[in-house]
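fold-stage: in
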Amino acid sequence: MRLLNSLFYQLVDAFQTFRAKGWRAGIIRLAKTGQRVIYNQDEFIVLAKALFPADPSPDLLPGLSVRRLTTQADVNLLEPLAGATDMARFHRMFDLDAVVFAAFLEGQVIGWGWLTDKIDPQTNRVQAPLQPGDACLYDLFVAPDFRERGIAQRLVASRLQYLRDHGYQRSVITCSKDNPAALKVAQRAGYVSIGESRHTRLLFWDRYEYKSFKLEEHYRV
């Protein structure tokens, strides 16, 4: 059922690409969707950061605000930037008590970031095992026109402060090896590598592997 739901929403996204960008872009999107449904393998770097002592707050940008979205109606504010696949996943994540912060510039949503202390492979993709006092940050996104302005760092900082305020001790992030920009944001925020993970999917079969994974005490409080 999970695979069928994912396929349905990805097909919706592909047809939206047909309408917005033309047949060539739509066919490319459809081909990638088919390939990922049949077989997909991703490799990740797992990073961690102790939440105390707290970091200095980043400077505010004129017109920018970052706040928590607290209702399903709030989550719908992400729809102009998210496809059908992500919106279906976002609503499930919210129902499972995941927390989302959104960045607004002059009232317009330009980015978001999620956090949770529970791992649900259907929505969180691949995350490292969490220990008591841990929570993971994931699904960081900033609209392309607003990148390289420090907005990602502010979304990270807001979520880290939420974790501190709610008694967590450590934050974990899993970055795809194919996403150096996300890795750079995490390292700039003070995260350090604690291992690697791999997710392999072949139709209905999933496998999660963790290699050279370590939880040294100096990453904890």
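fold-stage: in (second)
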Amino acid sequence: MTVAINSSIPDMPAASPGQAGRIVQLDGLRAFAVLSVFFHHALKVPLWIGVDLFFVLSGFLITGILLERKACGQSYFGYFYARRARRILPPYLLLLAVSSLLFGVEWVRHWPWYAFFLTNLGLSLGSIGHDSLNVLWSLAVEEQFYLLWPFVVLLCPIRVLAWIAGALIVAAPAMRAIVTPWFSSSWPVYYLTPFRMDLLAAGALLAIAITRDRHALEPYYGAAAALALAALAALVCLHLSYPRLRAAHTPLSNAALYSISVALCTSIVVIALRGRGMVQRVLTHPVLVYIGSVSYSIYLVHVSMLYALWPLHWNRYLTTLLALAATLTYATVSWYGFERRLVLNAARQTAASAMRAST
């Protein structure tokens, strides 16, 4: 990246989003995100914003990688898409194999959705495989966004890129409101990429800001904390007053509800990036960092574990604990079996590229 972020700066991350070194507190944040999604599905509690937090984190980290590759002038598209394939495909294919063993191969009848990362479109059309694979919609959103975003990052000056990200943040809620009459339910608005790109763009805007000035977010920490509290309070009040608001399917609910989530998740990432005091101690706790490291496989398989246990009709809390234990075991085996090696190899390649660029 054009501006490196040094570990000697206490008020900013130990590494920029594109550097080989991980921003440890973001691993802790991933843990909160994936556990939120898990308990949302397991206990039917309204913690759906965990997915939204993943989107903001993805936009931040991926845009950082792209900006760094652009700045160093080395392999760009080949590096980026090879890295994505190594990280995404092996656990993805393993999940399809596990789902086939547990629930049969119904998904094969809809194979194009899974082969081309179009499960969000399949869900919107009501044409999809076993429900345990529905979690793949969010992965489809990311992969569709990243088909185009690398070209935008490469071709646009960073100032223009910031304006584009800002425009996407504004455009997405407007589109959600405009298209509401087109659909019979709110699910297509929730699943389809054009209507969720404000989250990815918000993360991208944070990466752009840090690239231009490593202290760019520091003056906004207080505002981010206040905005996070206000957005959280708004979501809680809306849920208590209108528990079916997500399903209301009105232009206002579709536009406003997810925009509040954008504000909350973006503010949380800003707070995490500052990483001081109690926030830093919590987010860098070894247990949370580990869960964050294996969060991809946790996210992929957790619904499969729940669907495997639900037919037993055990106590819901016992079922939740067993599903969590099985999910963590699966993710750990997957991580040490092959994911960790792939991630470390990618990190070594990134470090080697950075070394060559600096000599």
